[in-house]
Write a structure and sequence with these properties.
five-stranded mixed beta sheet, 20% strand, 6 helices, alpha+beta, 40% helix, Aminopeptidase, 5 strands, 176 residues
Length: 176
């Protein structure tokens, strides 16, 4: 017998979602730590002692509040299964000179979907509504950052039309 498909509804974040989203941020960090090939990210047991989920949610909410942003959650009959955060990017004078014109830039700052919900179209729905929000605010283009070892996410964003533009290199574990 085929599994029933559960409908996903997208809505704005509310403070009632706080505890669930905090746990999701912790799970997200744990996932990123698991794909970190140089083992630079900290595992969740250490993060929980530092209230990582709470701190990161507070940072995200402050960022979207200060930058005309939005935070959406995806939920089905079982509860919240993902989220996306997006904001406007403030372009300064140097940015405008480098690019050659003033632009309205949108940025997807966070996207997370629970493991059980991945591959079911939830991430596409979240991205679609975040991109629509930014487009409605007048954005001429959008950007995002993705953790380089997270190949699944990189392929997903490329399918949505995002192209790699910048690459951050690091040299770690230096000794004197």
């Amino acid at each position: 017998m085929a599994a029933l498909k559960t409908a996903v509804r997208i809505r704005r974040y509310s403070n009632h979602d706080r505890a669930v989203i905090e746990r999701m941020f912790e799970n997200f960090q744990d996932y990123l730590a698991s794909v970190d090939d140089i083992r630079r990210l900290v595992r969740k047991n250490a993060l929980r002692r530092l209230d990582y989920g709470r701190a990161y949610l507070n940072k995200t909410l402050k960022d979207i509040s200060e930058n005309n942003g939005v935070f959406y959650v995806a939920e089905n009959s079982r509860g919240i299964v993902g989220f996306v955060a997006a904001r406007m990017v403030k372009q300064d004078k140097i940015d405008a000179i480098e690019i050659g014109r003033k632009e309205s830039i949108g940025e997807i700052t966070e996207l997370y979907v629970t493991q059980s919900q991945r591959g079911k179209g939830t991430a596409q729905k979240l991205m679609g509504i975040a991109e629509k929000y930014l487009n409605d605010k007048g954005c001429t283009h959008m950007k995002l950052n993705v953790f380089a070892p997270n190949m699944r996410a990189r392929r997903f964003y490329q399918k949505l039309g995002y192209t790699e533009r910048m690459l951050e290199l690091g040299k770690y574990n230096l000794t004197k």
